[in-house]
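To whoever is on call:

I kicked off a structure prediction for a single chain this morning and the downstream step that reads the tokens threw a length-mismatch warning. I double-checked the sequence; it's 448 residues and nothing unusual in it as far as I can see. Pasting both halves so you can look.
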Amino acid sequence: MSDLLSIGASGVRAYQTALSTVSENIANTGTAGYTRRTTTLGEVASIGGGIAARTSSNGSGVVVVGIGRSANAYRSQAVRSAGTDLAKTETSIAWMSRIETSLGDNKLGDRLTSFFGAAQTLSADPTSIPARAAMLESAGSAAAAFATTGKALDTATAELDATTSQAVDSLNSLGTALAKINDGIARSQPGSSSAAQLADQRDQVLDQMSTLTDVNTSFDGLGRATVRLGGAAGPAFVVGSDSGQAAYARNDEGAVQFTVTQGGATSTLSPSGGALAGFADGAQRLVAARDGLNAIAKDFTAQVNAVQAQGRDLDGKAGTAMFATGDTPTDISVALTDPRGIAAAGANGSMRDASNLAALQTIRSSGGFETRTVNLIAGNAAALQQRTTVADAQSAIRDGAVSALASASGVDLDSEAVDLLRFQQAYQASSRVIQTARDTFQSILEIR
């Protein structure tokens, strides 16, 4: 009789746990990062065998072996890899768009065209003071466009540094969180609900890490994650309950550098994916755009000033520099304030001579300032368009990977409804077994 009671009681306990697991699944249908859980049941073995088993007073029954997760390591890794690639591309796109805005918003090419157009207009009447004033005004607009464009690129560079530093701080915070989760997994009972919750948290942290940089993960028998950054050959970042510290800096050439310090040793991190790789690409493109703009500005001011120096102004004096340059090649201002000072005439020309203005048109063609400006903008725009196309494809790949993972590890309400009904019936049947045992025992007690 005690066998019947213990069997029924074990069933009630086991199916109560199973019902709780199903209820947890249903409640977390829309919870991001939640992995479907299952209750694994096992038969309670009899003591010994043969006659001893048949005469044993201990009943059999069912016991909860553990709470499992419907995790799929391969599909989870596919989601992380796709997310890493997409994060790199999207981050690159963000900074390439910023470069496009910085180069295009100030209409530098149009200002250069207006400057040379004003010089050509002045050549028709070199003695015209209004035409000279218009040329000086165009020179000021071109100088301002150079300065504003340079400052826009400098501002973008400063903001990239700040954003990258924040991303590195986030990576360090995630590393610290993962180390604590690893410690919690080591302390939790394998197969328990808390172990499953910690495993979900571990996977969510790894997913977030993968959007920042490419990560290589391995797991021990308990489920603790070891993480290397930058691929399998990269520096160790999280080992057990110990987490390293990533850092960000720039070298003298303006290139981005990342390092990881773990266990007292500092290693170089070379991310090939994630936002950090996108930041590195953006920084490289910003440096290239700045160098290209500097070269145009330097050549423009030097050649225009050289033309000025070889001519004569309206008063027959040698021409002076039209532009002055500050700390950077794009920090340009108009040094010439008097319209009469424009050296329109050649060295031996009269006041109505405009041969020196023709020299400006010559350097316009040979220097290619407008063409170089257009090419600088167009080159970035073409690369941006190409990168956007890649992002669309990578987004579709990631969506497919997420859907595949959800089908394998997510909650299906239809199957949960079936399990709910099945476990409910089993629970009720186990309760009925206990009631039957009680009724039978009461009947025996009433025998006289």
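Update from on-call: the warning came from a stale cache, not from the record. Cleared it. Sanity check on the structure: Residues 2-70+410-445 form one domain.
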